[in-house]
Design a protein that fits this description.
The chain has a domain of about 55 residues. β2 and β3 form a beta hairpin. The chain has a 5-stranded mixed beta sheet with strand order 1-5-2-3-4, with helices on one face. The chain has 1 helix and 5 strands. The protein has about 90 residues and is of the alpha+beta class.
């Protein structure tokens, strides 16, 4: 899934991927699919990935295939309820 390794992988094998989905959105995802972020640029995505790498002692890799979003970017449907906003 990656072609370039940015840092040494950790023994547990957690990898944070930076790449684009088929629509061209910049995404950051981890190999356990617990982390996902959407960004406006490669630089913003990479900055976030590097900060998360330091927190989780993971490696960062550039995805060479489109990433598949875990979280849908589709608008909320009429039949779906929005979460209440915090005050």
């Amino acid at each position: 899934m990656s072609s370039e390794t940015i840092s040494e992988p950790d023994p547990a094998g957690l990898v944070i991927y930076v790449g684009q989905d088929r629509a061209g959105h910049w995404l950051v995802q981890d190999s356990r699919r617990n982390l996902e972020g959407r960004f406006i640029s490669y630089g913003a995505a990479m900055s976030y990935a590097q900060a998360e790498r330091d927190i989780y002692h993971a490696s960062v890799e550039i995805a060479n295939a489109p990433l598949i979003p875990v979280i849908s970017f589709a608008p909320v449907g009429r039949d779906e309820r929005a979460l209440p906003r915090a005050a």
